[in-house]
Amino acid sequence: MGLPDGSDQGPQQTQALLSATQEMELQRRDYHVERPLLNQEQLEDLGRWSPVPKTYQWRTWFRCSRARAYALLLQYIPVLGWLPRYPVREWLLGDLLSGLSVAIMQLPQGLAYALLAGLPPMFGLYSSFYPVFVYFLFGTSRHISVGTFAVMSVMVGSVTESLTEDEAFLQGLNATVDDARVQVAYTLSFLVGLFQVGLGLVQFGFVVTYLSEPLVRSYTTAASVQVLISQLKYVFGVKPRSHSGPLSVIYTVLEVCAQLPETVPGTVITAFVAGVVLVLVKLLNEKLQRHLPLPIPGELLTLIGATGISYGVKLNETFQVDIVGDIATGLIPPVAPKIELFGTLVGNAFAIAVVGFAIAISLGKIFALRHGYRVDSNQELVALGLSNLIGGFFQCFPVSCSMSRTLVQESTGGNTQVAGAVSSLFILLIILKLGELFRDLPKAVLAAVIIVNLKGMMKQFSDICYLWKANRVDLLIWLVTFVATIVLNLDIGLAVSIVFSLLLVVVRMQLPHYSILGQVPDTDIYRDVAEYSGAKEVPGVMVFRSSATMYFANAEFYSDSLKKKCGVDVDRLIAQKRKRIKKQQMKMKRMKKAKKSQKQAASSNISSVSVNVKTSFEDIKSNDVEGSEAKVHQGEALQDVVVNNQEDDKAATVITLKSLGLPQPGFHSLVLDLSPLSFVDTVCIKNLKNIFRDFREIEVEVFIAACYSPVVTQLEAGNFFDDSITKQHLFASVHDAVTFALYHRKSGSNSPVLATKL
Question: pTM for this one?
Answer without folding.
Answer: 0.75
